Amino acid sequence: MFNKGKFREVFFSECNLSDVFFDSLKQDYPGFEFWFQTKSNNGAKALVYDEDGCIKAFLYLKVDECEPIKLKNRILPAAYRIKIGTLKLSNDIQGQRLGEGAIGIALWQWQKSVCDEIYITVFDKHNDLTALISRYGFVKVGDKADTNEAVYIKSKARLDKSNPYRMFPYINETKIGHSGILPIEEEYHDKMFSYSELANTDQETGETAAANGIDKVYVAFPRNGLAVQAGDPIFLYRKFAGQYKYFRSVVTSVCTIVDVVPVKYQGRILLSEAEYLNVIGNKSIFSQEELIYFYRYRQNVVVLDLLYNYFFGKGNNITNQTMVDNELWSGHPYEMILNADEFKRVLQLANVNFSMVVK
Length: 359
Hints:
Blueprint: E1 8-11, H1 23-28, H2 32-41, E2 45-51, E3 54-70, E4 75-89, H3 98-111, E5 117-122, H4 127-135, E6 139-143, E7 150-155, H5 164-167, E8 180-185, H6 186-192, H7 209-212, E9 215-220, E10 233-239, H8 245-248, E11 250-265, E12 268-269, H9 273-280, H10 288-297, E13 301-311, E14 318-319, H11 320-325, H12 340-349, H13 354-357
Parallel strand pairs: 4-5, 8-10
Antiparallel strand pairs: 1-2, 2-3, 3-4, 5-7, 6-7, 9-13, 10-11, 11-12, 11-13, 11-14
C-alpha cells in the first residue's frame, strides 16, 4: 500500500469506468472502453492518485512492449520499450503538479528497467502535457500513421546532458566529483520526499504541490555558506529528532541541485521578501507563515531548487554512524564535499547500481 499523498497501484477493475474522470478519454479514443474492460478482465494494474475516493490522476505503463511504431513517414523498428499508455489528470487539480509527479514515476520505472527507450503519444491539443514531457527530455520523432498523435521518445543512449531536467532521472557523471549532503528535519523530509521510505518507521507524507512534484524547493540556513553549487548532486540526510540520532538519522536519496539562490547572508538582505516568495512558488513544503518567519528572523537563508533523482528505499538507507565508519562524514553537512570515489561508495552502501543512477 502507498501512503496518502502518493500514487498507489490498483487493479483496473477497482476503477469506475463510468466516472466522469474518464469521459475525455472515451471521446478521444473510440475503443477506450473496450480496451479498459479488457485490461480489467486480464488483471492489469494502473497507478492512481485519489482524494476522498475521487480519481485525480491515472497512469498506465505498458512495460513489456516490443513492436514497431508506425509513423507517417517511417517505421521505428521493434524494440523493448516502456510506453506511457495512459496519462490522465483531473481538470480540477491545476497547480497541484500531479502531471509532473506522474512523469517522475514513469521515468523512475524506466530507470530501473532494461529498456533503452520510453515513449508517449500525445494529441497536439494537449499543450500542457507536451510542454511537460519536453521539459523532461522527451523528443518528438514524428506522428502516428493511424491516429495523428505525436510520438515523443526518451532514450538512455541519447540523454541530453546540457540540462538536469532533460537528464532526469539520471545524474550527469561529470558532476559527481563535487557532491554534497543536505540535512533535513524528519518532518519536512517525509512530507517533501514521500517515496524515500524507512523500514519500521511511520512517516507523515504530504498532500501538497510540493509533495506531488519531482522538482522541489528547500530553504536552508547555513551558518558559513554552502559548499555545493548549481549542477551538483546532493544526498538527502533525514535528521532524526529523538535519541540515538547517529543510528536513526539516515541518508535516503540523491538529488540534483538545479539552482542555489542566496536570500540573506549574515543578516544582509539579498532578495526582497516578495522576490524570495516568488522564487519558492508552490515547490516548498513550508507554510507561508514559516517562510516569512525564516526571511525576517534567520541570519542566513538560501533557497535550493532540487530534482528528486533517486530514493534508496526501505532497508537501504545509510545511518550517520555508517557514514562516519566509512570515512564519508566530517564536519557540518552544509560544508562537506564528496569526491567521485566517495559518491560511488555512498551508492554502494545503499545497494544501488551506479549505472542505474549515473550516466
